[in-house]
Specification:
Layout (H helix, E strand, L loop, with lengths): L4 H14 L5 E4 L2 E4 H16 L5 H8 L17 H22 L9 H9 L9 H27 L4 H11 L5 H8 L5 H14 L1
Antiparallel strand pairs: 1-2
Helix pairs in contact: 1-2, 2-6, 3-5, 4-5, 6-8
Length: 203
């Protein structure tokens, strides 16, 4: 599905901002800005899950970690309360930065607000099936980016039981289709075996 001109222009602004990330990850044989790669991969997974996704969802995923390095986790206490506060503040920051970045652009009315709501993981209103479906696709893509891009590095920092617990909490957030994609990722054997075992457990 081709993007309208205003959405392509928005992607360019988001990508230019994320290209300033000083953190690097290796992808496709090159060292690239971390949040730029994660934004690209989120967009990629959305095309696999919902090729006809609405512009608001496409915009939200491209900007889901917009300039994340400016809100480091280490700036907050290393406990669960600190983590939850950081995550909430970061989501608000990404949504606000998206509005600032696209100010004066041609984003249609209501699209930016819906994208911001998705980024901040606002609960869908009762009966808002469209928002609920978009929120699920948003969550699916983020989970796949985590598994594909961050699982290996994260696994090196936590005990095996903690890793198992986190994956066991991640899978129920995902749709059946997204779990199928996850089980086919080119992960290390030990992580893929654990993931597939947990998939079997959740049914």
């Amino acid at each position: 599905m081709s993007a309208p001109d205003w959405l392509e222009a928005a992607f360019e602004r988001i990508d230019a901002a994320n290209a300033q990330d000083p953190n690097r990850v290796r992808w496709a044989g090159d060292e690239s800005p971390k949040e730029l790669v994660h934004a690209w991969r989120a967009s990629h997974w959305l095309t696999q899950l919902a090729p006809d996704a609405a512009p608001a969802l496409r915009l939200a995923l491209r900007a889901h970690h917009l300039e994340r390095w400016l809100r480091p986790r280490d700036a907050y206490p290393r406990d669960r309360v600190g983590y939850l506060r950081w995550r909430k503040d970061a989501q608000r920051f990404h949504a606000d930065r998206l509005a600032e970045l696209l100010a004066g652009g041609d984003v249609p009315g209501g699209v930016l607000e819906r994208a911001q709501a998705l980024i901040q993981k606002a609960r869908p209103a009762a009966g808002d099936d469209e928002h609920a479906a978009q929120a699920q696709a948003f969550e699916d893509a983020l989970c796949l980016v985590f598994l594909e891009q961050q699982l290996a590095g994260f696994a090196d920092t936590v005990p095996d039981e903690k890793l198992r617990s986190i994956l066991a909490k991640t899978l129920p957030k995902m749709s059946t289709e997204a779990i199928g994609h996850a089980a086919a990722l080119p992960l290390a054997d030990v992580h893929l075996d654990l993931l597939r075992a947990l998939v079997a457990e959740v049914g």
